[in-house]
Amino acid sequence: MESLEQYAEDRLPQMKKTLEELVQIPAPSFEERRRAEYCMKWLETNGVSGAYIDPYDNVIVSYPAKNGTSPKQAYGCLFLAHLDTVFPEDTKLELRKEEDRWSCPGIGDDTANAVVLMELIRYLFIQKPDVAHPVLFALNTGEEGLGNLKGCRGVMKEYEGQIEAVVAFDLYQKSLYTDCVGSIRYRIDVKTEGGHSWMDFGKANAIERMSAILQELYKYQPLPGAKTTYNVGLIEGGTSVNTIASAGSFLFEYRSESAQAMKHGAAFLRQVLEKYCCEETKVRCAIVGERPCSMDVNPEKQKWLARGISRITEEVTGKKPEEGAASTDCNIPLSFGIPSVCIGLIEGGGAHTREEWIRPSSMKEGLAMAVKAVRFVTEETGPIQFVSPDHELTEKEKSEIFEILSACDHDFCPPLSERGGTAESHLTADSSHNPGVTDYYRELMTQKNFLWKQGGRTIAFMSFRPDYQCPQLSRFPRVCYLTTLCLLKEFRGKGLSLRIYREVLQYLRNRYPDATPALRTWSTNGAQIHLMEKLNFEQVDVLPNDRGCGVDTVYFAKTDGSV
Prior knowledge:
By secondary structure, the chain is an alpha+beta fold. It has helices at residues 4-22, 33-45, 107-127, 150-158, 206-217, 259-276, 299-317, 331-335, 362-379, 395-407, 435-444, 496-511, 526-534, and strands at 52-53, 59-63, 77-82, 96-98, 101-103, 135-140, 166-169, 175-180, 182-191, 195-196, 228-237, 243-244, 247-256, 282-291, 322-326, 340-343, 347-349, 357-359, 384-387, 448-454, 457-465, 479-487, 516-522, 538-543, 553-557.
């Protein structure tokens, strides 16, 4: 088989041809359908099966694992590149070629990256390499401006709980974005009675009032500790030079790496607008775009992904990319706690200008980077496999459960180690563990246990009792009671808990169709309660102050039969 470098060299003429065709198809945000249809036809012509255009006009493709896939199987990584550009429909898309320098609006942001992503998909379907778990691809929409990341939002919604990491291909090789800049974008409308500039002089002027509001907004003092910016980008209003304007509007935004700073800015904006809103001046504010900040991403997983992509970029190009933060498609998965990075696959510059350029020969480097990135996320993570409770636990599995339980001790309320217990005997782990953990473990060993493994190692478990009754659940004739869910900290913040519950509920529905799944938790366990709401569990009882002052025990049951 030819080397990856030779394969990329051989495909460069075709990549140039594809780029020349794709870059001349207009694709402002919300108008990407023509490009999506081009990409669909290209993929079908090049031997890629199963591609489809979703309701958001994203082109979606999945590449299966060697052992096959199922609708609820987790994808090791989502790779994406956006189809839209910042330029309006009537922008002249003239491609200018000067040896190894091509210029055209939108050529680097993000058309060339999209071309390389298509070539990556073709490589997988033609070369058919084995991967440990499936990979998802999206040529997505709405990344620019007021597109508000609609395409990426749509993918993450459709595959919620199934994506373990995200790599976006955007901009240039020199930069690796490992964090996101959030933004809130507003349209402010100001209305007054207006009138004639001579006869009605003295009446409130919408443009003057709007100017005063902007003067106030530019006095804002951001919270310290995180870079925060604000900007007015577009002003409209008025009728003529001799008219007291009755209406005006402007677009205004805050940007920051800190969600708290964004909230602070939003509160200041509301205060200013309330100050100027009165009987003669009506002020209306609407959010027209919102890009979230990063939330609860596992730092070790994020570092692992960033280091891997940085290493690949340096290995292929000879240059280490500079790490930073930006507003990209990664804002969405990072806000869900999913490790994500954004890297460009090509050399170029001048993004968002009509003089934007790239070095087309760099696409062969980009293809090598993209293929190595797929190898990295599939070979070095391995799939997370579901193990049903219909087997007898091995001693190794018992030991792993005990270790996970011990690591999760203080995640419980109250902690297991503070619950007391009898003198502990030697089990499969260090006898220095508190008797409370040991007693709890002994109880788990009398129950049934689901396992989730990666590379033969247990990384999460859930225990349950197939027949259980208590006064709080007495309205249900038969209950499958979910007692404990624990997963290693390095696997948190990736949507794995949602996947775990779905796989468990599917199993219980098939194995115990007449039983009601139920569980209990404590009232301050916000993450667990959020999961219960998402999975349509019903709150059926509350024991006030059961776990201490102000901490209730809350019972939930799954009564609707959905998964």
